[in-house]
Specification:
The complex is a heterodimer. Chain A is an all-alpha fold. Chain A contains 17 helices and no strands. Chain A folds into two domains: about 90 residues, no CATH class; about 270 residues, ABC transporter involved in vitamin B12 uptake, BtuC (Orthogonal Bundle). The longest helix of chain A is centred in the N-terminal third of the chain and has 30 residues. Chain B contains 16 helices and seven strands. In chain B, strand 1 and strand 2 form a beta hairpin. In chain B, strands 4-3-5 form a three-stranded mixed beta sheet. A two-stranded antiparallel ribbon of chain B has the order 1-2. Classes of the chains: A mainly alpha, B mainly alpha.
Chain lengths: ~400, ~425
Amino acid sequence: MSVVPPVIEAARPSAANRILQRILTGNWLVGIVAVLLSILVGSILIAITDPGVQAASAYFFSRPGDTIAAIWEAIAGAYAAFFRGGIYDYRADDFAGGIDSLVESLHRSTPLIIAALGIGLTFRAGLFNIGGRGQILFGAAFGGWIAFGTDLPFVIHPIVAVLVGALAGAFLGAVAGALKAFTGAHEVIVTIMLNFIALNLLTWALNPGGPLRGPGSSPLTPPPPESSLFPILVPGFSLTAGFLLAIVLTVGVWWLLERSSLGFRLRAVGENPAAARTAGIDTKWITITAMALSGALVGIAGVELALGETRRPFGIAVDNGVGFEAITVALLGRSRAWGMLAAGILFGVFRAGAVQMRIAGYSEDIVTVVQALIVLFLAAPPLIRELWGVRPDGRRKAAKA
Amino acid sequence: MSGMVQTQTGGLQRVAIVSWKAQIGYAVIAALSLLLFVGLGHDGVASFVLTEGGSAWQLPPIEVGARSFGLVVAVLLVAMTVVAFVLAARRRRVPIWLTLVFGLLFIVGFLAWAAGAATLSNTLQIAGLLAGSFGVAVPLIYGSLAGVIGERVGVVNIAIEGQLLFGAFSAALVATMTGSPWAGLIAAAVAGVLVAFVLAAFSIRYFVDQIITGVVLNLLIVGLTSFFYSALMTKQPETFNNPSVAQFTRVPIPVLSDIPIIGPMLFKQTLIGYLAIIAVIAVWFGLYRTKWGLRLRSVGEHPTAADTVGINVNRTRFWNVSLGGALAGIGGASYTIGAGVGFGENMTGGAGYIALAAVIFGQWDPVKAALAALLFGFTSNLGSQLSIIGSPVPSVFMLMLPYVVTILAVAGLVGRSRPPAADGEPYIKS
């Protein structure tokens, strides 16, 4: 969400001009308004549940200033904690300690970006992959199995884990794709059901005596060995090679979607399946391929969650809500590779900021609320316009004509 | 399950009797029972207790030899399979009652096998098992009714999960604050309607994809309820989250609740449980026997035609989706004020998705969907019962069953899966 100077002479069709065009077509403005509105709603929720505000509001009519001060304190406190956790910790002693928050956000954004790339890919092909959770669990389970089940050297070990996790995710995606292609089963229903099947399978595998059960008394895997973990990029910071992988995959998905022949066919099926079929595109094959590729990417996100983010024995909670959050990231990024990268980083800031909010004594769940609201508002540009009131200069009115 | 199959080729619908799917299904299950009940059977005794401890009519427990009983059941199943094949060869339908008897026999055989193979106890409390299954199924029944109404009117309701969760939350909050379970019940219905309003507004007014709206709404409700749970409820549980002071208790109906096997299940319920049964019948009657139902179904099947005859498509959709939301909200109340349990973070744990599965497995029919919900409640309750008596069946596989049969159903392998024609399609008046 870069802020571009609003006054640019529209002389020639340059890159800057195209960006301006996009701002004027309303999407970016709608995006900013959606984020602001959601944060406003979040602030209201923080204020009404704050004990200080509740205490002060009891004597609101005698001293209204107290209530307003308490509201300000609660909201400012919450968002300051959020800022410290997600962007820059101004209380830290040095710059490295301060910027650690932003690095943590990038680290936290990694699985979101990778999973969103996968889910966005299916959106472009006119499909819905709601099976992010199951594919993440499958990727994590099989990637984890490589991690503590095999003995491989550094660097090679996580690479093999990623490949196996991708295959596991791709399998789950391909099942949904094949059922859609050959029997017409709606992929939304199938992927939702596969989520729960994967969840139950992993629960079973983590039961005492199960193939993934670790030595402890809780249903967790064995600890992954040091060699299998994603290497840390800069000592002292949490960021791993997984983030580089996320950027590489972003470029890869961009190339696949916008430049490759497969991507063209994929988008053609997404835009108009009947026309694509008439043009000789094998829509069944494209459906299966899109779902398998999507599952592979989401599976990689699962491996990253296990071996890059958790780095410890993990259980069925390894997905950490990423499977569903990635859907919102894909929607926010409008299923474009670079958009999803940016949206993933934004939501990574949310994830890192939420942790600090919890430490500061605020409920981190407010972040989930704000995230969901952003997507809801974004999904309905007409709603934003109605709430905002259409401006008389017609700019925004012409936007979505 | 009639052997009819619909194939869709290029927009044309062709109906032809080409399928032997039901027969193949019979054969697979019969072969499975031979293998499981006889081949892998145990020689122990399986004991079924049919009455509850305190009831007026007491029946002695039925004890059978697990393997010999399994053999009888397996032979009967094989015989019925042969009958089904003979019927198909004569181009006749397999009657639905045969399938029901077949399924029931298989379940009884399975119970005997599981109890015979159990390590801790060989006794299964059948009446308690069924009553517990109904308890698990109550929110699923309400959720599936919400799904049936929504999809029959043309709006896919993925947000059942959110409606159940918000219903559970609101019921606990309001019932604790007012001290009245009735207020909690109304609050739950209102909560479900609120979620439905958002779903309906986004999908009907703003033409946002219904699946996206549903998924994001579920996320929003999880966030909202978890936020209020940790910001309010955990800090002052006595004031905000103590439904045990205002819960619906079980109201046994005299005499009827003493009927062996099914008495405790049907006639020893909370008010929310009785209401579920009434709601199923009411929705069935409404859908198929009233003007309201006819209009609702016509909007879901062919909105343009409905519009032509003067039905306001979008208004019909809006209010019926809201009605479904109220039902799902009441279903959510069964988690908290229906059980006297405080609200817990994400306490519905995916029940809304099982309800969605029941809608599909129940072929978008309220009675069949409620029966599917009951079946799913039974499998999950059976899973936990079997793990208590030390049965060799891992409970996760029982818990997985609803999802597996739903995938088989949408793939057309079990029964016939044909959603309403305009399901999920926004109606844009031209």
